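User: Good morning. I'm curious how iron/sulfur cluster would be positioned relative to this chain. Could you predict the structure with it bound?
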Amino acid sequence: MRSIRTLINEVNNLLIKKFGIPPRNKKLPDPLDMLIATILSQNTNDNNSYKAYQNLKNRYKSWNELVNVKRVTIESVIRVAGLAKQKSHTIKELIGKLNTKNDLSLRSIKNLDNNRAIEQLSNFHGVGTKTASCVLLFALNRNICPVDTHVHRTTNRIGIVSEKTPDKTFYALNKNFPDKIAHSFHTNLIRLGREICTPTKPGCGICPLNELCNYPNKNFDLKKEGLKRDFMLLDNVSK
Ligand code: SF4
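Assistant: Good morning! Here's the predicted structure, ligand included:
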Protein backbone atom coordinates (compact mmCIF):
# COMPACT_ATOMS: atom_id res chain seq x y z
CA MET A 1 0.00 0.00 0.00
CA ARG A 2 1.27 3.49 -0.93
CA SER A 3 2.09 5.96 1.85
CA ILE A 4 0.23 9.29 1.98
CA ARG A 5 3.43 11.04 0.87
CA THR A 6 3.80 8.81 -2.19
CA LEU A 7 0.16 9.25 -3.10
CA ILE A 8 0.37 13.04 -2.76
CA ASN A 9 3.43 13.06 -5.03
CA GLU A 10 1.71 10.87 -7.63
CA VAL A 11 -1.44 13.00 -7.58
CA ASN A 12 0.62 16.17 -7.85
CA ASN A 13 2.52 14.85 -10.90
CA LEU A 14 -0.68 13.80 -12.67
CA LEU A 15 -2.35 17.15 -11.95
CA ILE A 16 0.67 19.05 -13.27
CA LYS A 17 0.53 16.93 -16.42
CA LYS A 18 -3.13 17.90 -16.86
CA PHE A 19 -3.18 21.53 -15.68
CA GLY A 20 0.50 22.60 -15.65
CA ILE A 21 2.40 24.21 -12.78
CA PRO A 22 0.11 26.93 -11.33
CA PRO A 23 1.55 30.43 -11.81
CA ARG A 24 2.73 32.22 -8.72
CA ASN A 25 3.56 35.83 -7.83
CA LYS A 26 7.34 36.36 -7.64
CA LYS A 27 6.83 38.85 -4.82
CA LEU A 28 5.03 37.38 -1.83
CA PRO A 29 2.07 39.47 -0.65
CA ASP A 30 1.96 41.05 2.77
CA PRO A 31 0.52 38.60 5.38
CA LEU A 32 -2.16 41.07 6.48
CA ASP A 33 -3.23 41.70 2.86
CA MET A 34 -3.53 37.94 2.46
CA LEU A 35 -5.44 37.50 5.71
CA ILE A 36 -7.99 40.16 4.76
CA ALA A 37 -8.34 38.79 1.21
CA THR A 38 -8.92 35.29 2.61
CA ILE A 39 -11.53 36.54 5.09
CA LEU A 40 -13.31 38.22 2.17
CA SER A 41 -13.16 35.00 0.15
CA GLN A 42 -15.11 32.95 2.70
CA ASN A 43 -18.33 31.54 1.22
CA THR A 44 -18.19 33.46 -2.03
CA ASN A 45 -16.53 33.22 -5.42
CA ASP A 46 -13.08 34.60 -6.17
CA ASN A 47 -14.32 37.32 -8.54
CA ASN A 48 -16.59 38.91 -5.94
CA SER A 49 -14.09 38.66 -3.10
CA TYR A 50 -11.41 40.19 -5.35
CA LYS A 51 -13.74 43.13 -6.12
CA ALA A 52 -14.35 43.65 -2.39
CA TYR A 53 -10.62 43.46 -1.68
CA GLN A 54 -9.87 46.01 -4.42
CA ASN A 55 -12.65 48.28 -3.06
CA LEU A 56 -10.90 48.32 0.32
CA LYS A 57 -7.43 48.84 -1.17
CA ASN A 58 -8.65 51.68 -3.41
CA ARG A 59 -10.50 53.42 -0.61
CA TYR A 60 -7.85 53.25 2.14
CA LYS A 61 -4.14 53.90 1.73
CA SER A 62 -3.21 51.58 4.59
CA TRP A 63 -4.97 49.14 6.90
CA ASN A 64 -4.10 51.58 9.64
CA GLU A 65 -6.88 53.86 8.42
CA LEU A 66 -9.49 51.21 9.25
CA VAL A 67 -8.85 51.75 12.95
CA ASN A 68 -10.98 54.91 12.76
CA VAL A 69 -13.49 53.76 10.17
CA LYS A 70 -16.95 52.68 11.37
CA ARG A 71 -17.76 49.00 10.92
CA VAL A 72 -20.89 49.81 8.89
CA THR A 73 -18.76 51.77 6.42
CA ILE A 74 -16.51 48.74 5.94
CA GLU A 75 -19.65 46.65 5.50
CA SER A 76 -20.82 48.87 2.65
CA VAL A 77 -17.40 48.87 0.96
CA ILE A 78 -17.16 45.06 0.95
CA ARG A 79 -20.83 44.28 0.28
CA VAL A 80 -20.10 42.60 -3.05
CA ALA A 81 -18.29 39.78 -1.20
CA GLY A 82 -21.47 38.71 0.64
CA LEU A 83 -21.79 38.12 4.42
CA ALA A 84 -20.62 41.73 4.64
CA LYS A 85 -21.84 42.29 8.19
CA GLN A 86 -20.00 39.26 9.55
CA LYS A 87 -16.84 39.93 7.50
CA SER A 88 -16.73 43.62 8.45
CA HIS A 89 -16.96 42.60 12.13
CA THR A 90 -14.05 40.20 11.66
CA ILE A 91 -11.92 42.79 9.84
CA LYS A 92 -12.71 45.58 12.29
CA GLU A 93 -11.90 43.40 15.29
CA LEU A 94 -8.73 42.08 13.65
CA ILE A 95 -7.42 45.56 12.84
CA GLY A 96 -8.30 46.80 16.35
CA LYS A 97 -6.39 43.95 18.03
CA LEU A 98 -3.35 44.27 15.76
CA ASN A 99 -3.32 48.01 16.31
CA THR A 100 -3.35 47.51 20.09
CA LYS A 101 -0.38 45.16 19.76
CA ASN A 102 1.33 47.59 17.37
CA ASP A 103 1.59 44.76 14.82
CA LEU A 104 -0.38 45.96 11.80
CA SER A 105 2.02 44.17 9.44
CA LEU A 106 1.44 40.82 11.22
CA ARG A 107 5.21 40.51 11.41
CA SER A 108 4.91 38.55 14.67
CA ILE A 109 3.84 35.39 12.86
CA LYS A 110 6.84 35.31 10.52
CA ASN A 111 9.10 33.75 13.16
CA LEU A 112 6.64 31.15 14.37
CA ASP A 113 6.53 27.54 13.22
CA ASN A 114 3.46 26.42 11.27
CA ASN A 115 1.48 25.11 14.23
CA ARG A 116 2.12 28.18 16.39
CA ALA A 117 1.35 30.56 13.52
CA ILE A 118 -1.96 28.81 12.80
CA GLU A 119 -2.79 28.84 16.50
CA GLN A 120 -2.04 32.56 16.76
CA LEU A 121 -4.03 33.52 13.65
CA SER A 122 -6.97 31.32 14.70
CA ASN A 123 -7.26 33.34 17.90
CA PHE A 124 -8.77 36.15 15.83
CA HIS A 125 -12.55 35.95 15.70
CA GLY A 126 -13.72 34.62 12.31
CA VAL A 127 -10.33 33.14 11.36
CA GLY A 128 -10.17 29.34 11.20
CA THR A 129 -7.58 26.78 10.17
CA LYS A 130 -8.26 27.19 6.45
CA THR A 131 -7.90 30.97 6.47
CA ALA A 132 -4.78 30.83 8.67
CA SER A 133 -3.11 28.18 6.50
CA CYS A 134 -3.81 30.24 3.34
CA VAL A 135 -1.78 33.07 4.90
CA LEU A 136 1.06 30.64 5.59
CA LEU A 137 1.08 29.17 2.09
CA PHE A 138 0.48 32.28 -0.02
CA ALA A 139 2.17 35.02 2.02
CA LEU A 140 4.89 33.18 3.96
CA ASN A 141 5.67 30.53 1.34
CA ARG A 142 5.35 27.73 3.87
CA ASN A 143 4.99 24.21 2.49
CA ILE A 144 1.49 23.73 3.84
CA CYS A 145 -1.70 22.69 2.04
CA PRO A 146 -4.86 24.58 3.11
CA VAL A 147 -8.03 22.49 2.99
CA ASP A 148 -11.19 24.07 1.64
CA THR A 149 -14.31 22.23 0.54
CA HIS A 150 -12.71 21.17 -2.80
CA VAL A 151 -9.48 19.87 -1.27
CA HIS A 152 -11.48 18.06 1.44
CA ARG A 153 -13.81 16.40 -1.09
CA THR A 154 -11.17 15.39 -3.63
CA THR A 155 -8.53 14.07 -1.19
CA ASN A 156 -11.16 11.93 0.52
CA ARG A 157 -12.60 10.62 -2.74
CA ILE A 158 -9.17 9.76 -4.09
CA GLY A 159 -8.37 7.97 -0.83
CA ILE A 160 -5.38 10.05 0.29
CA VAL A 161 -7.13 10.58 3.62
CA SER A 162 -10.33 9.37 5.19
CA GLU A 163 -11.68 12.18 7.34
CA LYS A 164 -15.08 13.68 8.09
CA THR A 165 -14.26 17.40 8.29
CA PRO A 166 -11.95 19.81 6.41
CA ASP A 167 -9.98 20.54 9.60
CA LYS A 168 -9.34 16.82 10.23
CA THR A 169 -8.34 16.42 6.57
CA PHE A 170 -5.95 19.36 6.97
CA TYR A 171 -4.07 17.79 9.89
CA ALA A 172 -4.00 14.30 8.33
CA LEU A 173 -2.73 15.67 4.99
CA ASN A 174 -0.11 18.00 6.43
CA LYS A 175 1.38 15.64 9.01
CA ASN A 176 4.21 14.69 6.67
CA PHE A 177 3.68 16.70 3.49
CA PRO A 178 6.25 16.23 0.66
CA ASP A 179 8.66 19.16 0.28
CA LYS A 180 8.02 22.12 -2.02
CA ILE A 181 4.80 20.97 -3.70
CA ALA A 182 2.07 22.39 -1.45
CA HIS A 183 1.25 25.34 -3.73
CA SER A 184 0.86 23.31 -6.91
CA PHE A 185 -0.95 20.45 -5.15
CA HIS A 186 -3.40 22.79 -3.39
CA THR A 187 -4.09 25.01 -6.41
CA ASN A 188 -4.49 22.19 -8.91
CA LEU A 189 -6.75 20.20 -6.57
CA ILE A 190 -9.05 23.22 -6.28
CA ARG A 191 -9.11 23.39 -10.06
CA LEU A 192 -9.88 19.67 -10.25
CA GLY A 193 -12.68 20.10 -7.71
CA ARG A 194 -14.21 23.04 -9.56
CA GLU A 195 -13.93 21.68 -13.08
CA ILE A 196 -13.99 17.87 -12.92
CA CYS A 197 -14.42 16.33 -9.45
CA THR A 198 -17.51 18.39 -8.70
CA PRO A 199 -19.74 17.66 -5.67
CA THR A 200 -22.37 15.86 -7.75
CA LYS A 201 -21.70 13.84 -10.89
CA PRO A 202 -17.90 14.06 -11.00
CA GLY A 203 -16.41 13.77 -14.48
CA CYS A 204 -14.43 10.57 -13.81
CA GLY A 205 -14.31 9.80 -17.55
CA ILE A 206 -12.02 12.79 -18.16
CA CYS A 207 -10.23 12.80 -14.80
CA PRO A 208 -6.43 12.45 -14.84
CA LEU A 209 -6.62 10.64 -11.48
CA ASN A 210 -9.10 7.98 -12.54
CA GLU A 211 -6.66 5.07 -12.35
CA LEU A 212 -5.44 5.76 -8.85
CA CYS A 213 -8.67 7.15 -7.37
CA ASN A 214 -10.53 4.87 -4.95
CA TYR A 215 -13.92 6.62 -5.02
CA PRO A 216 -16.57 3.87 -5.13
CA ASN A 217 -19.27 5.96 -6.85
CA LYS A 218 -17.42 7.09 -9.96
CA ASN A 219 -19.48 8.66 -12.70
CA PHE A 220 -18.66 8.07 -16.35
CA ASP A 221 -21.85 9.54 -17.86
CA LEU A 222 -20.89 13.13 -17.97
CA LYS A 223 -18.31 14.71 -20.24
CA LYS A 224 -17.13 17.95 -18.67
CA GLU A 225 -15.04 19.16 -21.58
CA GLY A 226 -14.31 22.80 -22.23
CA LEU A 227 -14.92 24.22 -18.77
CA LYS A 228 -13.33 27.60 -18.30
CA ARG A 229 -10.68 28.06 -15.66
CA ASP A 230 -11.82 30.13 -12.70
CA PHE A 231 -9.93 33.19 -11.57
CA MET A 232 -7.96 32.37 -8.41
CA LEU A 233 -8.09 35.19 -5.84
CA LEU A 234 -5.27 34.17 -3.55
CA ASP A 235 -2.73 34.08 -6.37
CA ASN A 236 -3.70 37.65 -7.29
CA VAL A 237 -3.57 39.48 -3.98
CA SER A 238 -1.69 42.80 -4.23
CA LYS A 239 -1.06 42.51 -7.95
S1 SF4 B 1 -11.82 9.76 -10.65
FE1 SF4 B 1 -13.76 10.78 -10.26
S2 SF4 B 1 -14.02 10.77 -8.04
FE2 SF4 B 1 -11.87 10.32 -8.49
S3 SF4 B 1 -10.84 12.31 -8.39
FE3 SF4 B 1 -11.38 11.93 -10.50
S4 SF4 B 1 -13.39 12.92 -10.79
FE4 SF4 B 1 -13.02 12.69 -8.59
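The first helix runs from residue 4 to 19. The chain is about 50% helix and 0% strand.
Let me know if you'd like a different ligand tried.
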